């Protein structure tokens, strides 16, 4: 302001406050005056491709499950996706929410993952680390479908234990689902490693006494390295080593946490405060040795996508909760950016600047 012959720092606070009110009011008017004006996101084609791929994966999994003689209970899975497991099996580790499991089967979650990856600034060829439990097989498929659509390179470590209604069928866990998708040439990715999951990531704390033995059998069947450490800290460290080795010197550009496996989500109270969705910079940080990979990667400046509160994610992005039937691909807020009135926004900007100028004039006159 000094260039205009006025001394800086003399704008009365009342004018600054008024300018802020005008700006906020203008933003509100600009938004509500164009409620129906939305436009597709610039990466809409990739969103559609990812959602279509997730739907194709679901069809393949459903058909194979039925061929295996593993029926689909329409009371649990009214859309017959095949991605909803039984409530209690040998590998059920914890309580799960059926509504959340069914909500996650919407292929729009693959479109949401494309949106997150784009907002994180990822580019084709970038390496991403994926840490998943068996609680949300649909979200793993959504993530890998989005990675495929954007030509990313995921490194996935899978914990076999699952909460209720997840990948709880011992004869058809996500280990088997991904192998099937490879065999059918639908998804080209393989698991990097598996762990047992459950308490301490050691197959403990399952609801049935035979749980750990069944998990061990599944781990052997996976045909990849098995992470077995005595402590959660050891599991975290080993996962970092696996990610680093497979990245082969390339930087890991994003970490995706799917579910609540302890080495990924952490074992601290701070984990409960870690936001859902894309987190570029967490509002909190933990220094605990068992803080989990969400904090380990955040501390290194790597964006984290945390998918745990599925209902909250759906509401935030305009996705239906527990939809029957599943909505058509390409429809919904997750594919769009909100519209606004450029004229209203311009008027608000001019008025805000005018208020500040008036304040500067008044302040300068008082200082003489």
How do the helices and strands follow one another from N- to C-terminus? HEHEHHEHEEHEHEHEHHEHEHEH
- Based on secondary structure, the structural category is alpha/beta
Distance between the termini: 16 Å
* Strand order in space, largest sheet: 7-6-4-3-8-10-9
- Whole-number mean pLDDT: 91
- Estimate what percentage of residues fall within beta strands: 5-15%
Would you mind describing this structure in some detail?
The protein is α/β, with parallel strands linked by helices. Helix content is 44%, strand content 12%. It contains 13 helices and eleven strands. The strands form three sheets. The chain has a seven-stranded mixed beta sheet, with helices on both faces. Strand 3, helix 5 (137-150) and strand 4 (153-159) form a beta-alpha-beta unit. Helix 2 packs across helix 4 and helix 4 (108-119) packs across helix 5.
Task: Give me the secondary-structure topology.
Blueprint: H1 13-32, E1 38-40, H2 44-67, E2 92-94, H3 98-103, H4 108-119, E3 127-132, H5 137-150, E4 153-159, E5 162-163, H6 174-183, E6 191-195, H7 211-222, E7 225-227, H8 232-247, E8 252-258, H9 262-265, H10 269-272, E9 277-279, H11 293-299, E10 304-307, H12 310-316, E11 336-338, H13 342-367
Parallel strand pairs: 2-5, 3-4, 3-8, 4-6, 6-7, 8-10
Antiparallel strand pairs: 1-11, 9-10
Pick out its properties:
368 residues; alpha/beta; seven-stranded mixed β-sheet; two-stranded antiparallel sheet; 13 helices; globular; disordered N terminus
Short description:
The protein has 368 residues and is of the alpha/beta class. It has 13 helices and eleven strands.
């Amino acid at each position: 302001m000094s260039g205009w012959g006025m001394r800086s720092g003399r704008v009365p606070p009342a004018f600054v406050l008024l300018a802020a009110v005008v700006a906020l009011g203008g933003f509100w008017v600009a938004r509500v005056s164009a409620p129906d004006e939305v436009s597709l996101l610039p990466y809409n084609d990739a969103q559609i491709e990812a959602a279509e791929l997730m739907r194709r994966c679901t069809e393949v999994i459903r058909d194979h499950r039925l061929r295996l003689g593993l029926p689909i209970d329409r009371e649990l899975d009214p859309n017959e996706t095949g991605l909803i497991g039984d409530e209690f099996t040998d590998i059920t580790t914890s309580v799960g929410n059926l509504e959340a499991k069914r909500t996650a089967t919407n292929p729009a979650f693959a479109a949401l993952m494309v949106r997150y990856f784009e907002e994180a600034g990822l580019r084709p060829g970038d390496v991403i680390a994926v840490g998943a439990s068996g609680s949300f097989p649909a979200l793993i498929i959504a993530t890998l479908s989005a990675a495929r659509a954007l030509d990313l390179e995921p490194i996935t470590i899978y914990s076999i234990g699952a909460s209720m209604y997840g990948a709880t069928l011992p004869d058809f866990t996500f280990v088997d689902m991904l192998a099937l998708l490879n065999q059918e040439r639908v998804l080209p990715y393989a698991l990097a490693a598996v762990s047992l999951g459950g308490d301490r990531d050691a197959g403990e704390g399952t609801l049935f006494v035979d749980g750990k033995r069944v998990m061990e059998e599944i781990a052997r069947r996976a045909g990849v390295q098995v992470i077995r450490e005595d402590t959660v800290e050891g599991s975290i460290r080993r996962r970092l080593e696996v990610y680093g080795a497979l990245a082969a010197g390339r930087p890991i550009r994003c970490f995706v946490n799917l579910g609540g496996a302890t080495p990924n989500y952490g074992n601290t109270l701070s984990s409960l405060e870690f936001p859902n969705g894309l987190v570029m910079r967490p509002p909190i940080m933990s220094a605990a040795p068992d803080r989990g990979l969400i904090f380990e990667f955040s501390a290194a400046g790597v964006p984290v996508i945390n998918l745990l509160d599925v209902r909250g994610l759906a509401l935030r992005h305009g996705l239906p909760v527990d939809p029957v039937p599943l909505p058509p691909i390409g429809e919904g807020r997750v594919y769009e950016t909100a519209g606004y009135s450029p004229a209203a926004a311009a008027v608000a900007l001019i008025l805000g600047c005018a208020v500040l100028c008036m304040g500067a004039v008044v302040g300068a006159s008082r200082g003489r």
